[in-house]
Design brief:
By secondary structure, the chain is an alpha/beta fold. 40% of the residues lie in helices and 15% in strands.
């Protein structure tokens, strides 16, 4: 089966047709959806979706870097409360984002470190968000003598950056719709990267692949990413499905 390692299925953008989209994906062999949390406002919706589809939807817990503001400690306290209340499949989505706003960079670094510490404590993998902040994210990761396993979500960096992440030894690169974009350059990076380091994702409703670029991304569109990956790696679709599934299960299995 195909595993979507990063999808915001609880997003309001799916409120009108979420059920039909999920069933469509399942019929097309996309049968597992890993849900990264954003902040305090997304938790209830995420939990509700997981409760409705317990065999297909699996929740992470974390604080997204774009939600790190003045109340960072309050948000982190809530994350910790939930981590100590019930089990999750991973801690995410966490990291550093300096694309939109650099005002809370120091707080983002603090939140990232704290959540890595929790991942180590609870033996969870992590889903890392990194935008215009590779050096900052890498420096935080290098500051730990031991790191939890994890996924570098929505990887769109260089071959050199990919190698740096892979060299940590227990990380996969999340490959999504950007792979299908004509001038992204990600195809060249993927060409040089062994399949054993890659997992599939949509990040839906964002970053829809070609030929749906610019539209709302949907769960079944992960097939376009899988097909493109198979083409680039000169592999069968079945091989891509099998290897990326194994890679995902390594991250999300305690």
């Amino acid at each position: 089966m195909i595993i979507d390692t990063h999808i915001h299925l609880y997003s309001e953008e799916f409120d009108s047709d979420r059920e039909s989209l999920i069933h469509k994906a399942i019929r097309n062999n996309v049968k597992a959806f890993y849900l990264p949390n954003i902040d305090s406002e997304s938790i209830e919706r995420m939990h509700e979706l997981e409760s409705k589809y317990p065999d297909h939807c699996f929740s992470m817990m974390g604080l997204h870097p774009c939600s790190v503001k003045e109340n960072v400690q309050e948000e982190l306290d809530l994350v910790e409360k939930w981590l100590r209340t019930r089990s999750y499949v991973a801690i995410g989505e966490i990291g550093i984002d300096l694309y939109w706003d650099k005002t809370f960079k120091e707080q983002q670094v603090y939140a990232f470190k704290k959540q890595i510490e929790w991942a180590l404590e609870f033996n969870y993998g992590i889903a890392i968000h990194c935008r215009d902040a590779f050096d900052e994210v890498y420096d935080v990761m290098k500051s730990f003598s031991t790191l939890p396993r994890g996924i570098f979500h929505c990887f769109s960096g260089t071959s050199e950056q990919a190698k740096k992440i892979i060299d940590f030894g227990n990380y996969k690169l999340g490959i999504g719709g950007v792979l299908t974009f004509k001038n992204s350059g990600l195809d060249k990076v993927v060409q040089e990267t062994d399949l054993k380091y890659l997992v599939l994702e949509t990040d839906a409703p964002y970053l829809a692949p070609v030929p749906f670029r610019g539209k709302r991304n949907e769960p079944v569109y992960i097939l376009e990413v899988a097909r493109k990956l198979a083409q680039i790696k000169d592999a069968s679709l079945a091989e891509v499905e099998e290897i990326t599934q194994q890679n995902a299960q390594y991250i999300f299995t305690k």
